[in-house]
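Weekly structure sync, notes
Attendees: PL (lead), two postdocs, one rotation student
Agenda item 3: pending single-chain targets
PL asked that the sequence for the first pending target be pasted directly into the notes so everyone works from the same version. It is reproduced below exactly as submitted, 521 residues in total.
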Amino acid sequence: MADTKREIERKYELPKRPVAGGSGSEPHGRSALPDLTKVRVVSAVTHEGVTELDAVYHDTPDLRLTADSLTLRRRTGGGDEGWHLKFPVGDGVRDEIRAPLSDTLPDELAALVRSRVRGAELTPVVRLRTSRDLSLLVDGAGRTLAEVAVDSVRAERLPAGTGTADWTEIEVELADDGDPALLDAVEKVLRKAGVRPASATSKLARALADTAPAGKKRARAASKRGPVTAGDHVLAYLREQADAIVSYDSAVRRDLPDSVHQLRVATRRMRSAFRTYKKVLDREVTRPIGAELKWLAGELGVDRDQEVLAERLTASVEAHDTTLLLGPVHARLQIWDAAGRTDARARTLAVLDSARYLRLLDSVEALLADPPLLAGADHKPAKVLPRAILKDYARLAGRVEHALGLAPGEERDLALHDARKAAKRARYAADAAGPALGKPAKRFSKRMKAVQSVLGDHQDSVVARDALRDLAIQAHAAGESAFTWGLLYGEEEARAADRERELPRVWRKSAKPGLRRALAG
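Predicted structure, written out during the meeting:
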């Protein structure tokens, strides 16, 4: 069973020192460290001894994990030997997923990199043998504040014989629940002693750079042109969404907050861009991928909709005095939510493990590698993108006006839901064009979001009423009072009516002609 540890650490480079009377060099060891008791909260530095670590790092032949700043290794030696998969969280912060030592990659870790690896083989790429001289920084009460390791590293490119490198570095890792300000204080002391932050983000990154073939070491990265044409901007946006899908895949598997929602949003944004910018990308090519994105968003919606609905109902229950909560209201809501979430999560994970989903990722990658650009892709963004956005806006206008012309009831509810989807598409269209069109697109997106929010709250009320009716039926069948569920149902009806009365005002504000003229240039 894997577990997770958050690492907050900093790395520092140490130059080799010449060996007296010779031409070689020697590792620094503890002698490289200045007196860290100069840090105000550090009372003592205790030496823990030297440990020999042997780690083999795995990646695809084209280094897909490395490209996303992930590291996967199998390490022996030390107190945490086993398989380690590290995800970047922020500057100097990573989440390390650990699994017990085994000959092959554990299934749980394999699942976390599947969206990146897919059909490619994971093979050993680098072996690092490290002699770690470890010390602890402790306070006056004997509590460990941080670990300080002086690591003498020997890197070997795999397969063997394709390159080696060695270096010494200092690694300072904050103790669990430690104050990050301590790292600033330690760095200040290290800098005064002439120690500088490492240029590489990880040992693996340095090993790959230092053991690269000579030709690749000398090669300069090709200069990248920023987005210029309409096609450039649309493709840049699509790549952002593709990256988000791959990234949030592992976050969903780890059950991180809001991850299902963000994964679903990325799929919808990509599909929306295919439909909006059909003068840029050939719809005959994007339509099948869009259909699969719709399938994926729908499957993810089971999990996300349950999450949103549970939060809404829980907030409604907690907003009432206990005198209005007749019967085991909290218990029934918790049981209903637990059952829904278990089923929804199992379904989501099954989708992410499916061959259909992996084929979709392959299709997206292939499309971005060889995009089906049309003539409009070569035009200036200001000529192509606003027209597409305003066409989406016209579709939204028709749906809003149609819904507002209907009498309250189920037919109007369905029409307002259709308008909500059109508002979301218009907003996404403006977001995609934001880097090209600037403030007008951002203002347009903001107005569309306001319309979407009103319509979204209305739709959430419709869904909530269906759930409340089911809960009332369950309570009645169990011999419980259905009073509270009926009360909440009535409040949701009133909330939906409020949103319907609010919509005309929000819509009029979003429809200001000056904004449309600015967007159209």
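Discussion points:
- The longest strand covers residues 44-59.
- Confidence is low (pLDDT under 50) at residues 19-27, 218-223.
Action: rotation student to compare against the earlier draft before next sync.
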